[in-house]
Structures are given as C-alpha cells and as structure tokens.
Amino acid sequence: MTSALGERLRAVVGAEHLADGASAAVDGVAPRFVARPANVAEVSRLLGLAHAEGLAVAPRGAGTAQGLGNPPTRLDLVIELGRLNRVVEYEPADVTVSVEAGMTLDDLERVLGKHRQVLPLDPPGWRARTVGGVLATNASGPWRFRYGTGRDALLGVRFVQADGTVTWGGSRVVKSVTGYDIPKLLTGALGTLGVIVETTLRLHPSPECERSWLLGFASLDLARGCLAALLDSALQPSRVEIVNAGTLAALGEPVTAAALAVSIASVDAAVAAEGAELDRLARAAGGGARQLADDVWERYGSLFAGARGVRLRLACLATSVTELVALVDALAHRHGLGARVGGCAGLGALTAVLEGECAPDAWEPAILGPLRDRLEGEGGSVIVEQCPLALKERIDVWGPVDPQALALIRRIKTEFDPTGVLNPGRFVSRL
Amino acid sequence: MTRPATVAARLGAFSGPDLPDPDGLRSCVHCGICLPQCPTYQILGEEMDSPRGRLYLVRAAAEGRLDITPTFTRHLDLCLGCRACETACPSGVPFGRLLEATRGQIERRGRGPARRALETLIFGLFPHPRRLGPALRLLALYQRSGLQSLVRARGLLRPFPRLRAMEQLLAAVPRVGRLPALVPAVGARRGRVGLLTGCVQRLLYPQVNAETARLLSRAGWDVVIPAGQGCCGALHLHGGRLDEFRRLAGALAQAFPEALDHLVVNAAGCGSAIREYGHWLGEAAPAAALARKTRDVTELLVNADLPLRPVEAVATYHDACHLVHGQGIRSAPRALLARIPGLRLVELPESDLCCGSAGVYNLLEPQMADRLLERKVDNIAATGATLLVAGNPGCLLQIAKGCRARGLVVEVLHPVEVLARAVGP
Amino acid sequence: MPLSPAVIPELRRLLGPDGLVVTPEGRMTYECDMHTFYKGTPELVALPRTTAQVMELVRLCRRERVAVIPRGSGTGLIGGATAPQGGIMISTTRMNEILEIDLANRSATVQAGLINVWLSNAVRDRGYFFAPDPSSQMVSSIGGNASTNAGGPHCLKYGVTVNHVLGLEVVTGAGELARLGGKVADRAGYDLTGVTVGSEGTLGIVTAVTVRLLHTPEGVRTALAAFASIEDASEAVSAIIAAGIVPAALEMLDAAIIRAINEGIHAGYPTGAAAVLLIELDGPQAEVAAQAERVAAICRDHRPLAIRVATTEAERTLLWKGRKEAAGVLGRMTANWLLQDAVVPRSKLPAIMREVAAIAARHQLLIANVFHAGDGNLHPLICYDERRPGERERAIQANEELLAACIALGGSVTGEHGVGVDKAKNLPKQYAPADLNFMARLRRAWDPDNIMNPGKLLPSHPACGEGLRVGAPVRIPSGAWV
Fold it and tell me: Looking at chain C, which residue has its C-alpha nearest residue B31?
C-alpha cells in the first residue's frame, strides 16, 4: 500500500523530490512522505491524489512556522513548496510583483531592492521565510504599523484546493473589487482552505532614509504617556515597538522598565525633523531618545524567531499594551520564567517569548488563563505560536473563538474541505 | 399680456400648460448628493421624501408610469420647497421650478375638501393686506381680551393641529403705521430704489420696513414706496397656483415706476419668487425687468457708508432658505453683521437647514414643521447667542415661536433691525 | 416566491407604524440606485433602527423564502441595491448613529447607515479623519462603503475601505448575528471581516462597522497640472509612480469633464487643456516639500501647459469639489451614459488611454474621462443619446471593447464600484469557472438559501456555480424615458 502510494507520488514529482517523512514530523506526527513539487501542476496532482486517497496533507514553506497550530490529527503527506520560487512577473513601474509561494523573502528582497522597492512584511526571521508561509500564518513585524499586514499586501492569489483544483482569487492590479476578496480568506488560514502557490503583492517604494530611536522610560506609566502622545501627534513613524526589560537586555541596550523603539522613514530632511520632534516628545514624557544602529531590527527579529521556549502572540488594544507588558512580566517573574516582550505598540500586536522551567500542567492556570481572562473583555487574544509538544497537548493554542464566527468558519471549512485533507486538526477549534 | 404663450400638451400624467420641464427632470442623474441636505429626508430617512425620490416620482408621472395619486401628492406636499437640494446639486436640476410646475398640475386636478378649505382660508387672507389687516386686528383683540390665554390654557385647539399652528405663530400683533410714498436720500445721492413692503412683513414687522427705508435713505438712496403695491405672489408660486401668481406678478410690476435702479426686498421668500418672474412670465414681460433689478436689502447695505456704534451682543445667523438657496445669498448678511462693532457673530450649526416655516408650510404641515423647528431651536440654544438674526418674516415668526415655547431667551431680529441699532436713531 | 401579505402586520409590529414602505409610489423610488438603467421594485421597504430589527427581518425573509436587498444611501453605480426578484429591501438610512469614538485606539464604531463624511466631520476638530473617500462620501453610507469596498481618490496612498475596516456587525443570510473582528484587529480564524467587506450584501447585511481613524497629516499640498494631450498626462502619472512617490491622490480629468465641472461647480479648472492632473501630497511638511519639487519636475518633463498650486484651504476645497462632484455633473454632459470602472497596471496607463481614444473615434462617441490615474483605475464615461438610432448599440459595443482591452493588459473588471447586476456577466472575463465556483460555494456557506441580494455579484450562468440557484431573469426597465 505504502509503496504503491510512493510510486504514484514519485510519478508526480520525480524520485529525487520525494522523501520519507520521518524527518518532517509536525508536532511529533510524522508524515509518510515529503513531496517537493516543481510547479503548480504538480501541487494540483498531489492534492488530487491526496483527496482521492483520503490522505491528510500539510503544506510547508521554509518550515520555520511548523510549530503554529494544534497537533495534526492525521498526517500523511507534507508538500514542501521550496521549488516554487520563481518571479512570475515583475514590472517595477506597476509597483506590484507576482511570485511563486515558495520564494523566500530574502530572495525577493534582492529582486526588489534593485528597483528600490520593498515588500514590507518583516516578521521575526523573515529572510528565511517564504512568501506563502508568511501569508498563510499571517505573520507580521514592526513595519505593520505603517504598511499593514499580509491582508493589505496580497492582491491576488493562486491556490490549490483540497481536491486539487487550481483556483485564482483577486487580481494583479492594486485595486479590484471583482468578486469576493479571496486573498483575505486565504491570508492567515494556515492552508486549511487551499495551498497558496502564487501571489501578486502590492509593493512600496523603499524609503530614502530610515532611522530608529530608542525611547527609554523608568516606568511603564511613563512609556504609556509617551506612546499616547506619539500616537496622537502628526508624526508618521514606520515602526512603533514597545519592548520590556528582558528584550532590552537581550539587545544589549541599557535596561529600563520599558522602552519604545521608533523608526521614521522618509526623505532625509523629514527624518531629521521628525527625529527632533520624537526627542522632544520623549523628554516631555519623562524619558529620552537615543538613535539606534541600523542593524537593530535584524537583531530584534532574531530574539523572537526560532527560539526555544514558549512564544505567544498577544493581541490587545493600543491603550492596553503597557499594562499587558506589565502583566506578562509579572506572571513570568512569579513563575521563575524569563520574558522577552516586544511588538507593535501602536496596534496592540505583541510577541512574548517565555523561557525557563514550568511544568506543562501549570501553563494554563499560571500564564495562559490570566492573560486570556485579561484580554477577553476587549476582544484580545493569546495565540501560542510555539511551545513544547508536552504543553501543546494540554492546551488549545488558538484560544477561544467567538461562537458565531466559529460557526461560519466551520461552514466554510466544511464547504471546501469536507473530508479534512488540509491540515486536519491544526486550525482553530481543531478543525 | 403677462404670460408667455403656452401650448396645451401632454406629458405622461401631466397635461395643459406649465408642464414640468422634461429636460430639467432628465438632468437629474440620481447621484443623491441632495439627500443629506433635504430637511424632510433628514427627519424621515425615506427616499420618497427626498429631492431625488420626489423627482423620481415626478419623472415617473411624466413617463406615464405613474398617475397623480394621493400618495404622489402627499410626498410633494411634504416638500418644504426650501431648495437646499438646488444648492447641493452638481447637475443644476431646477428643483424649485419643477416642484412648482408639478404643484400646479396637482392644484389643477383639485384637492380634497379639508385641504381646499384650509387653502381658501390661507390664500384668502395672506396675500391680501386689506383682508389680513382686519383679521389681525381681530386677532389682536383676541389676544388682549385674554381669550388667547384661555384657549391656550385649556388646549382648546389641540384637536385641530393646523389651526393650532396658525394660532401659535402669532405673538403680539403690532400696530401698523403707514410709510410715506417717498423717503428721500440723505447726503450724497446714490440712486433710486423701490421698496417692496410685502404682506406679512407690512403687518407683522412694520418696523423692519420702516428701518429698511430709513437706512437706505441714510445710505444715499431715494426710496420709493408705492402705496398701491400688492402681493408678489410667492405663496401662490410655491403652492402651484400659477395663474394667480402671474396675475399678481404683473400687477406688482405695474405698481412700481420703471425708472428704478433696484427693487429692494427685505423678505427672502418675496425676493426669491420675484427673481422667478422671468421664467414664469417670459423674459420680455415687464415683471421680468423688475425681477432683474431685484436685490435683497443686505446686498445694498453691506457696503453702505453708515456710522456704526457698538452693539454688545452674541448673535447667530439663520440662513433663510429663500435667501441662501433661492437667491444664493450667503455672505452679504453675515458680512453686514460682521461690520457691527461689539457684535460677536457665532456660526449656527446647520444654519441653512429649514426652520419649518417655508411660506405657509407650517400651517399646512405643522407636524413636520414642528420637528424642524425643534432642531433649529436646539441648534440656536447650542450657540449661546442672545440674538438670532434671519432675513425672512416667516422664519422670524417661526423661530420666535420655537424659542418662546422652549423658554429660550433669544431676541429674534431681521438684519436690518440689528443694523438700525448700530446706526442709532 | 411572492411575498405573503400576511407578513405586513408582523413587520409593522416589528418596525413600528412608520418603519415600512408599502405604497407603490414609495416603493418605486427604491427601484434603482445611481445606475438607473437597472430597475427592480422591492415588494416592501423596511426602515429599521436597530440591529435586532434587522436580525428579525432577515429571519422572517428566510422563513418566507424571499430575497433581502440591503440598501444604504442608494448611490451605487452597479444596480446593486435593486430588487430584480422582488423581496424586502432593508434600508439602513435610519441606522445612522455614531456608537463610539475611541481616539486613543484610533477607531470608531458606527451604525451602517451613517454618512461617510459625517464621521470625518465628527473627529476633524480633534485632528483625525476616516480615510476612504469615495466621490459619493457626502451622501454614501459607511455600511454601503464597506459592502462595496469603496475606493476614492485618496485610496492611492491610504488604501481602500477594507484596509480601514477593523470589524463588522453583520446579520448573515442564515439570520445569525455575527460580530467579526473589532477594535483589536488580530483574531484567530479566517479573516471573515475581510471577506465580508466588498461582498455587496450577498453574504449578509452589515449593521455596524468598526473603522480605523487616521491622524490628519501635518502638511498637504494640492496642485493642478494641465497638459495639451492625454498621453502627456498619462506618461506623467506613470513617471510619478515609477519614481517611488506615493501621492495622497493622483486624479486625471479630460477636457469634456473639465468643461462640465467648470459650468456646474465653477471650480475654475484651466480651460483649453486636453487633460488635467489633480495631484495631492500629504505627510510631514519636509516630506511634502521635497516630493512636491520632484513631482513638479516630472510634470515639467512632460510638456505641461500650466502648473497651479492651491495656496489656501478654500482653493484646495474648490479643486476637490470639482473632482468629487464630477459624477453629478453628468446631467450637463449627456442624455445617457455607460460608466466603466476597469483597472489596468499603472505602467499601462498611456497604452490604455490611446486605446480609449481609438475606440471613441471608431464608434464616433464622446468618451469622457475622470479617474484615479495613480491607481490605474479608469472611469471612462461613454456618452450617448438613446433617442438617436444606433447610438446605444455603438455605446455598448465600445464598452465591451474597452473592457476587453483592460483585461488584455492584465487588468481587473472593476476597481471600486463593484459588480452588482451591471458587471456580473463580465466576471468570466477575469475568472475561470473554477474561480467562480469557489466564490459561489463561499456564498452558500453564509447564505444557505440564497436569499441575500440574489442576482448580484456572481454571474448566474449554470457553469459558474454548481451551488448557485439560477434566479429569475433580471427585469430591464419598462419603457424608455420620454
């Protein structure tokens, strides 16, 4: 049986692109095979086969975010998209690009950089990540404050449905309302409705100049005051991150209770003028601004990428960020954990990495419960992006989802993948 | 001959002379920019009580898709004719003229008995100073005798909202003196103007006419005030009584001498209607020549060389629909008030939203008129002003009534009265 | 299925005595949106004030198996708010409250019927604005903007409505109330907010919207550049975009539109130019100043007739009033019109404008242009007079050719107006049957009985959707205009 399946998969991708699945386990569940298709047609044939055979499939980009999601209930085949790494169309004057989903953001940056353009998706460890993976996991970084997230960048998407049907949604131009916004549906869907194989993306001109400052504060209250003043000002920062003492220490920066890391991107004269205004704001709020080295954002990202320990994605109101940083610090301290917290203060999108010894059974009552209780009232959430398997088996990594929204999500999933080919068990409510 | 030759014709459900202009109807592109400007749409939020919806109904009738039904008539009756939609319209739809022509069609079809009786009363009184005068003297007696307090206290008119509306409008009827036929210019002479004394203005706000004449003469104008002048026909025009309107317009043109630089009007509704003479009577008619000379009093006084003393007050200005929308006069009255030292002018929110007066609308549609008045008074109260200034007697009556009912201590004045205080005796 | 008269008393109990339009005359005024070519009279019009009433309405419609047609201010250009299959129209005009303004979190929540510009008016004094600015913004509702994912001149820099919608309250076709997204935008699960925006009322009816507010930029500069040919103007647009400048808005108007705007709005646009660019830059003062110089230099490289910079807020307002009310001046230009909303990649703008001119010449028609040049979002306005024999047919033919040319250049059928009834038949030009089938199935997940705005957004051709019930044929207006 297995060998017969192997034959048929080999017939699609070729022997050298089909591997045994033992090394590609997701949360301890090893697939039987890993296939590395060369093009969209091969992805389609693989999924057609999987659908007919009742196989469970996990799509995979660079594999950097395989820890996201609940453990799969079944897994037979991992489709790894690294060979779909071509630029399909790039006309710089359009300020858009169409690329295959397996291309890494690092490779894409090299293509776009020649024309002084940028795809402003910068989640932790972004260089190694693929376009498709970043979109499917809706990963974001500091630049989201100015440029938004994957939902704002993805104009058109080609994807392969659970039964192998190749489907296109959206358009190749910057503005289109022709039919439903399928790109939005696929963004952050963790491949549960289809495997993203090609994308058309909105680009931005690279800023002529971008400089960053660290605004340190002796207390979170002072940081909160400065953040409110900054957000209520006419300044147009490209990044507004809040970081806790743990993150400052890891960065090798002077440790204060909290700090804001703010970038301004514009023409030289505007950056200088806004930098001065930023300094004034920081002083008025009882802190000070110090310019940061240009490589700070790469180092910052690496603190939250890969990483061991438990990584949380926290969503809250902008007005709650300082309080939430304080709460994470307090909970970590109480349970003897180290905490690095950072994230977009202007939009309330934080990441926390907790390291140290904590029994798997203790996480829910000690950390997750209190955080989720705090955020429930304002519509916030805590997603466990990465954690040891022993912990993952005891929690729901996604947390609760609004029942009405969940009913719709279930109906949509059932409509498109009734037999559970795509990532079964991994998405919200273990769909 | 005061009326252009019209050929009897049919246009869908419409017939006879004075058809709504098909090109005017066609120029509406249904964009809806007029909707938020329409008082009845703001209150009701219904398409058929918006300018776009009303035009759509008229157009459907013109296409023969709809007859002049009671519901059709109802939605057109509910229109205030404020023409705020015309100000908003980028396509230049002549809404006022289309409305008046359509009302003409409705009138020709005839009305139900209740409405007919009311119209007979209103049109039998208002445009006829000789009848309105005695009626108001009776009313004055009614007020002074204490009967009014009794009626109001007992709520005797509550079951009759339209009569009640009429009764409530009247605060105190002043005693009226007669103006001379000529008030000569004082100082350097600038020219010669005629003064329209109006029907309501003459009887209820005689001091506005007197001050208008005095200030104009102080500004260097000879002011001619023919004693025999009649009604301008504004109420008839807005009510769709087009034949009577033409007759009155022709007579008014006869009453004024030809050698005038301007015809000065201090009632927005009259000025707006007079400016329509050319359209309804033909540009060659003497009435059209009079129309071309017509100016609102604020247009003439805004730059007049008058000595001004301070008037210490906080004032706010209400745009009478038939000034701002009917005649496009928005800045002159404000500029005039702004010249007065000591007077602090605060902008009235929704200043160009109708107060509900709209000619005799507040008598015919008291419920809608009251809802608009409530909103107007809310806005006035929010400014904290102690003077409310408006350039139309209907608005002055209506707003004064609203402020009285609310217990809001605000003096309601015509711009000319405020200017007169600054100029002094 | 025709509506049972028995529901009227039930609806009156639900909505109150003034909450239902039943008269033929009243209903007639709801038979079309701005695209008056498409008509379909609702059997009833409901005027709810609360979300609870809307939920009861949709449940009743589902029970009775009648269509639900959501309607905002009725300013759409696609026949989206029409009832070709009858049913109950739900007008949101009375649902126009601002529910919350939370400037600290830069967001507001409003009822669906709130007029777009009223929100900006409410926060302007405090230095904020709501970015989506469709030309209809002085009358269109935010619920309608969300349902059609409206664009506008300033979406070049700020993005379209969906980029500013954080959350929605929506009653689905199943009659369920769903609160999607919210002030905290990131949620686990599918981006249902993003999918609902632009769904034209076919998934559910939007009852409230939570939007992002932006801080007013420090500096704004608005300028007009006039050119002797549309081609020069188009080349200038492509050059500005290619130079890495993102103006707040970059609009083009041609001679025919300029003439009508000057007549109707007295905006004082330069006469004698074949095309005018309206260019607005905003942001930090220093950035605006630097970019203004570069934009001016690019314009100068393209043989401008004149460049004029607005020096006062009044001048700026007047320039924008001319642009914003351009759709409204149509009545001055033509008896009848067809309006395109296709998009081309920005680098293809000069090519498509040459094609527009060629098509106009070929069919001997006036095609006027006023559009979002910076986005490549065309609005060719094909003018005709149906009283002249053959002109209507030529206009339709020109329309088809123009759309085909845009699609051939890699474009999209509609950039911001939406699909509605008008463009449903064109979707197969942009999408394969499998793509359309996916959309039809998505719709079914929300609206199992196909009661939500049936006949809109998706073509009803059987090949396009196994899950789609084919509705009754669209009724075309009875009788032409006199």
Answer: C34
Instruction: Supply the DSSP symbol for A206.
Output: P
Residues on chain C touching B52 (C-beta within 8 angstroms)? 29, 74
Helix, strand, or coil (residue A213):
strand
Residue of C291, C343, C427 with shortest CB distance to A175 = C343
Compute, in degrees rounded to 10, the torsion defined by CA atoms C107, C113, C118, C124.
0
Q: Tell me the CA distances in angstroms from A289 to A252, A285, A319, C129, C363, one per residue in order.
A: 16, 11, 21, 29, 65
Provide the domain count of chain C.
3
- For chain C, say whether B48 makes contact (Cβ under 8 Å): yes
In whole angstroms, give the CA distance from residue C8 to residue C22.
9
Amino acid at residue number A22: A
In tens, the pLDDT along C404-449 reads: 999 999 999 999 999 999 999 999 999 999 999 999 999 999 999 9
Q: Are B60 and C94 an interchain contact pair (Cβ–Cβ within 8 Å)? A: no
Cα separation, B128 vs B134, in Å, equals 10
Q: Hey, what CATH topology would domain A304-392 get?
A: Alpha-Beta Plaits (3.30.70)
Structural domain ending residue among the three candidates C333, C363, C396: C333
- Classify A209-300 by CATH class: alpha beta
Res B135: pLDDT? 75
Contact A61, A88 (CB under 8 A): no
Q: Does one domain contain both C94 and C201?
A: yes
Token code pair at residue A342:
């950072």
The chains found to touch B (3+ Cβ pairs under 8 angstroms) are C
| Domain residue limits, chain A | 87-205, 209-300, 304-392
The pLDDT, as a whole number, for residue A24 is: 94
Q: Are C202 and C294 found together in one domain?
A: no
Domain A87-205 grouped into CATH 1.25.40.10: no
**Domain C-terminal end among C299, C333, C367:** C333
Strand C204-212: give its sheet, edge to edge: C98-102, C107-111, C204-212, C165-172, C177-181
- C263 and C187 within one domain: no
Residues C101 and C249 in one domain: no
Instruction: State the CATH number of the domain containing residue C375.
Output: 3.30.70.2740
pLDDT tens-digit series, residues C244-284 = 999 999 999 999 899 888 888 888 888 889 999 999 999 99
- Using a cut of 0.90, tell me whether the model's pTM lies above it: yes
Token pair listed for C371: 């559009």
Q: How close is the nearest chain C Cα to the Cα of A18, in Å?
A: 29
Q: State the Cα–Cα distance between residues A170 and A182, nearest whole angstrom.
A: 6
Q: Do chains A and B touch (3 or more CB pairs under 8 A)?
A: no
Q: What is the CATH number of the domain that holds C292?
A: 3.30.70.2190
pLDDT, residue C335, reads 84
Contacts with A122 (C-beta within 8 Å, 6 or more apart), sequence order? A140, A141, A142, A143, A297, A301
pLDDT, residue B148, reads: 67
Helix (H, G, I), strand (E, B) or coil at C57: helix
Domain of C81, CATH number, reads 3.30.465.10
What domains can be seen in chain B, in order of their start residue? 17-109 (1.10.1060.10), 113-169 (no CATH), 182-301 (3.40.50), 313-423 (3.40.50)
Q: How many CB atoms lie within 10 A of CB B77?
A: 17
Closest CA to A189 of A221, A224, A162, A229: A162
H or E element at residue A332: helix A321-334
* pLDDT tens digit sequence for A319-329: 999 999 999 99
Q: Is residue C420 domain-shared with residue C450, that is, in the same domain? A: no
Which domain does C256 fall in, by range?
A: 218-333
Phi, psi of A429 (to 5 degrees): 55, 25
User: Nearest Cβ partner of C442 from A180, A273, A428?
Assistant: A180
Chain C residues with beta carbon closer than 8 angstroms to that of B69: 25
DSSP string, A131-159: HHHHHHTT---TTHHHH--HHHHEEEEEE
